[in-house]
Write a structure and sequence with these properties.
Elements (H helix, E strand, L loop, with lengths): L1 H32 L14 H16 L1 H4 L23 E2 L2 E4 L4 E4 L3 E2 L1
Length: 113
């Protein structure tokens, strides 16, 4: 019985370490990649220009990772678009219409990627 309790405590501590690691890394990545990120503040984009600015910022930060990160974060060159490891993927329904007179949707279930 004692061994089972010991294993349960070790399992709990291990899980706590994984959760803490994930939370701390998520916070670090938000500060690193999200332009003007502030903890607890609502994040929003209002214009197309602001959106492109934030995407450009995230890409610049990503490409600079080997020079600016203290951790062991890296990427494989040549794996993504334009020789970098970064690529952007979009998924959307091929076609869809909305009939405002009766609030019905007609969506083609085919997804383009």
């Amino acid at each position: 019985m004692r061994s089972l309790r010991y294993e349960l405590v070790l399992f709990g501590l291990s899980n706590q370490m994984v959760v803490t690691f994930k939370e701390e890394n998520t916070a670090a990545f938000k500060h690193l990649f999200l332009q003007e990120f502030q903890d607890g503040a609502a994040q929003s984009v209002h214009t197309q220009k602001e959106l492109y600015s934030r995407i450009h910022y995230a890409v610049q930060q990503y490409m600079a990772l080997p020079q600016i990160s203290l951790g062991q974060y890296a990427y494989v060159l040549g794996a993504g678009e334009n020789g970098s490891a970064l690529s952007l993927c979009q998924r959307f329904y091929r076609k869809g219409t909305i009939d405002p007179s009766n609030d019905t949707f007609n969506i083609d279930p085919h997804v383009d990627t």
